[in-house]
Amino acid sequence: HENILAAAKSRQDFTANVSHELKTPITAISGYAELIENRLIDSEAEVHVASQIRHNADRLLSLVTDIIQLSELDHRELPRKFEQLDLFSVARECVNEHVLMASQRNIKLICSGTSAGINADRRLVREMIDNLLQNAIRYNKENGTVKVHVTIENGHPMISVEDTGIGIPMEHQNRIFERFYRVDKSRSKETGGTGLGLAIVKHIVAQHDAELNLESTPGEGTKITVSFPVYQG
Ligand code: ATP
Ligand code: MG
After folding, report:
1. How high is the pLDDT of residue 187?
2. Is 157 in the pocket of ligand 1 (CB under 6 A)?
3. Arithmetic mean of pLDDT, 164-178
4. Angle value at C-alpha 156, between 166 and 74, nearest 5 degrees
5. What is the enclosing helix (H) or strand (E) of 162?
6. Mind listing the pLDDT tens digit for each residue in 187-201?
7. Which ligand is nearest to the CA of 139?
8. Closest ligand 1 atom, CA of 199?
9. Per-residue pLDDT tens for 76-115?
10. How many angstroms separate the alpha carbon of residue 131 from the centre of ligand 2?
């Protein structure tokens, strides 16, 4: 009974958060359109207004994408496609796709480790690693480093994503996996964060019977490790 009440409450919170997050960019776009409609934008301000509209549209797009992804994970609508994968080669693929994003921030990206077989859904595992990488780059410092490492420990395939970034204060460490939770709302918003990435990660980890571990020191960096079940081949 209590579980049902808690689930209803969390659905209500989620809906309230979604409405709030969606309203902000929509209101901005509508406001800029109104200015144009009333011919209040001179040619000088035109470019600025256009870029604001695009910025808000991009934000809306990433919000909608994340929300759809979460809702698919919630409802298990998509059939899971579990197959034998090498965690190390999936990690390398994801790392390669982030080279540009990292170089734009002067961040060194390192991928190391050994092959490790897992039974997993490729699309979901990529989504999980992408989200961890994005965070490790986004919440890093100028000239920082991101290390992705794959190993097998006591039979458990493991991947860790470690950064030399801003870190997460102790009192927030339990909460960052909640939907829409952001440590520093202003910084995260300015860099485009929605607060859904780690909620998606947590979901994907659960779907693979894997385990999540977080170690973080403010001002020094963060290391997130995902440990998969012992591989049966
Ligand atoms: P999104 O991933 O949806 O674009 P986001 O990055 O804000 O937005 P999460 O990935 O869920 O959302 O992360 C939640 C919060 O946890 C972030 O806003 C940030 O404050 C903090 N955080 C996550 N990863 C790190 C990290 N590697 N270093 C420091 N803080 C982090
Ligand atoms: Mg994120």
Report:
1. 57
2. no
3. 95
4. 70
5. strand 156-163
6. 555 566 788 999 999
7. 1
8. 11
9. 656 678 999 999 999 999 999 999 999 999 999 999 999 9
10. 6
Question: Which whole number is the average pLDDT over 178-195?
Answer: 75
Residue showing tokens 């002067």: 106
The protein residue whose alpha carbon is closest to atom 17 in ligand 1 is 182
- Return the number of other C-beta atoms located less than 10 Å from residue 217's C-beta: 12
**Token match 């409450």: residue?**
9
- Rounded distance, CA 114 to CA 92, Å? 11
| Nearest-ligand number for the alpha carbon of 201 | 1
Distance 1 CA to ligand 1 centre (A): 33
Task: Provide the mean pLDDT of the chain.
Answer: 91
Which ligand approaches the C-alpha of residue 218 most closely?
A: 1
The continuous run of DSSP H or E covering 178 comes out as none
Per-residue 3-state assignment (H helix, E strand, C coil) for 44-88 = HHHHHHHHHHHHHHHHHHHHHHHHHHHHHHHHCCCCCCEEEEEHH
Q: End-to-end CA distance of the chain, in Å? A: 40
pLDDT in tens, 101-156: 999 999 999 999 999 999 999 999 999 999 999 999 999 999 999 999 999 999 99
CA 87 vs CA 68, 113, 226: distances in Å: 25, 10, 11
Give backbone dihedrals phi and psi of 104, rounded to 5 degrees, phi first. -60, -25
| Ligand 1 neighbourhood includes 25 CB (under 6 angstroms) | no
Q: What is the pTM of this model?
A: 0.85
